[in-house]
Amino acid sequence: GHTVAVPASKVANLPHATAVPVKGATKTQSIEEMAGKWSDFSFAPIRESQVSRAMTRRYFADLDAYAESDIVIVGAGSCGLSAAYCLAKARPDLKIAIVEAGVAPGGGAWLGGQLFSAMVMRKPADAFLRELGVPYEDDGAESNFVVVKHAALFTSTVLSKVLQFPNVKLFNATAVEDLITRTDGNGIRIAGVVTNWTLVSMHHDDQSCMDPNTINAPVIISTTGHDGPFGAFSAKRLVSMGGLPALGGMRGLDMNTAEDAIVKGTREIAPGLIIGGMELSEVDGANRMGPTFGAMALSGVKAAEEALKIFDV
Ligand code: AHZ
């Protein structure tokens, strides 16, 4: 085996040496203290039911707490995660539920484009990278864009920050199947989301009695991406329920036009429903931009701003 010895004097100065104290834990150790002592090694004992309860108790407490949320973000791609970050940071008093159909949050932002690693962000979206503390390369004053060496570095950073906010809960592997609506004299108001396990949503045709669950919230931010197997969900549902006359339909690729249009157009499409990111291209008939992600980050920033306007009323 290969072990790396860390001098004892330095251990206390490493940030990860400060373990979070766990209630009832026998002893808090650093990984450096374990080094070279594997023959005496054993985990603290556990019973299987404790693992079950540790997970289920928290999950059901979250389902209970977030059944009434302040904001639901549908889709945890680059736009949804950017919106979540801004909202959770600005308003620690608001309960923010993120519902993501996939097991893995991040949407299309794990690669920069095709199967390439680097992620391009046009200026001034570099401001959002500085806000997150994501390192990037800038070719200097001549360059109108910056490059993050791997898209996964952006996505994992924004994701880890979002998940650390105490007022955010991510329900992944969970699909939004419908919108909760209220009708008053002024038409339809969106008042929450109807959810189901994604695997259940995929089997409504061959299994019965798999009714969904719900989350009530006065503001929904939908960022489900452009039309595809899961994409543009809320926009399409809004059309089918008569809340929007028709979809504009995403147009062909034009980076310059597309990114400005998505950021500027991010808004409350129907009362209580803000649409951002590439889902918006289906509403407005905007172009796609391909592998440039600045508009996704800044559409998220704007979606958060639009949501807070609703709360400030
Ligand atoms: O799983 C979807 C993905 O993670 C999720 N999602 C879709 N429908 C859902 C539903 N319930 C819950 N009904 C749902 N979750 O939404 C996420 C969308 O992420 P994305 O990366 O596809 O969208 P985005 O708008 O954040 O980023 C778009 C990135 C693109 S596409 C593009 C082009 O095609 O030209 N260019 C860019 C930068």
UniProtKB/TrEMBL annotation:
Catalytic EC class: transferase
Enzyme Commission number(s) of this protein: 2.4.2.60
Positions where 2,3-didehydroalanine (Cys) occurs in the chain: 209
Cofactor(s) annotated in UniProt: Fe cation
Cofactor remark from the record: Binds 1 Fe cation per subunit.
Chemical reaction(s) catalysed: [ADP-thiazole synthase]-L-cysteine + glycine + NAD(+) = [ADP-thiazole synthase]-dehydroalanine + ADP-5-ethyl-4-methylthiazole-2-carboxylate + nicotinamide + 3 H2O + 2 H(+)
Cellular location(s): Cytoplasm; Nucleus
Presence of the UniProt keyword Cytoplasm in the record: yes
InterPro entries, per the entry: FAD/NAD-bd_sf, Sti35, Thi4_fam
Pfam families registered for this protein in UniProt: Thi4
Top-level lineage group: Eukaryota
Entry binding sites for substrate: 79, 100-101, 108, 176, 211, 226, 278, 288-290
Post-translational modification: During the catalytic reaction, a sulfide is transferred from Cys-209 to a reaction intermediate, generating a dehydroalanine residue.
Protein task: Involved in biosynthesis of the thiamine precursor thiazole. Catalyzes the conversion of NAD and glycine to adenosine diphosphate 5-(2-hydroxyethyl)-4-methylthiazole-2-carboxylic acid (ADT), an adenylated thiazole intermediate. The reaction includes an iron-dependent sulfide transfer from a conserved cysteine residue of the protein to a thiazole intermediate. The enzyme can only undergo a single turnover, which suggests it is a suicide enzyme. May have additional roles in adaptation to various stress conditions and in DNA damage tolerance.
Family: Belongs to the THI4 family.
Listed PANTHER family: THIAMINE THIAZOLE SYNTHASE (PTHR43422)
NCBIfam families from the UniProt entry: sulfide-dependent adenosine diphosphate thiazole synthase
Subunit structure: Homooctamer.
The protein's name in its UniProt record: Thiamine thiazole synthase
